[in-house]
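Hey team,

Filing this mostly as a record. A colleague (T.K.) asked me to run one chain through the structure pipeline before their review meeting, and I want the input and output archived in the tracker in case anyone asks later how it was produced. No errors, nothing strange. Just documentation.

Input sequence:
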Amino acid sequence: MNTSVNLAGVVLKNPVMEASGTFGSGMEYGEFVDLNKLGAVVTKGVANVPWPGNPTPRIAEVHGGMLNAIGLQNPGIDVFCERDIPFLKKYDTKIIVNVCGKTTEDYIEVVERLANEPVDMLEINISCPNVKEGGIAFGQDPKAVEAITKEVKRYAKQPIIMKLSPNVTDITVMAKAAEAGGADVLSLINTLTGMKIDINRQTFAIANKTGGMSGPAVKPIAVRMVYQVANAVSLPIIGMGGIATAEDALEFILAGATAVSVGTANFYNPYATLDVVKGIEDYMRSKNVEDINSLIGLVK
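Output structure:
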């Protein structure tokens, strides 16, 4: 039975990874999850300099998921290279580094620093607010998507995954822009913008006012967007958004995703990724599926 998948020449032993920002860089989950059993580990967002993140409170529970406005708090590329890469290299899994920035130059600085580091792929988080464009996210303007993809590709030694924002009118326009810019892989969806108001305090539940909505409630939207993108471009897709079980993951694969990311579920079930790996294998046995690749995009 073959569970291995190919993302732009990088072969993962299975299609399961965790979503950036829900797993640290693997250290926090090392005692629960044997990282050797995951197809890849995706790091928390890494910037060129340390980012303090947003003021607290930064997380709020909502029905069917959660809102977060962490603000991509991270210790910066120097600490990441010294501390996190050596830790991850101890495991037999692929390393995907999530890269964030406030300007195109910020992204390029990180990408250049990682060129000679032993990491397998770079996931470019274009949901970051572009300070030069007045705070609109890079990923909400197709011209900006294509331009930043092209720039990052000029400097990157590893294959590039462009992480698409769902906060757009037509996700396929953004996907085609990333493809035109030379992206190797797409990942989607990032969080949906949401808000919660605390009626007792009569104020916003999150200091940032809005936050990124994730969890089970976003899954049907994510599956729809992955299906649309899979039928609009010819790039491999990492599907994510509300995946908590193997059944969830298989929906994304049947819709056209080559690999899947487990996010919010890690917070309440630290074994979620391993449960998904095992569940996919059980499903393949029960359906007499020899090769997981035969399931990718099977539903037309």
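Quick notes for T.K.: The chain has one domain: 5-295. The chain is about 30% helix and 20% strand.
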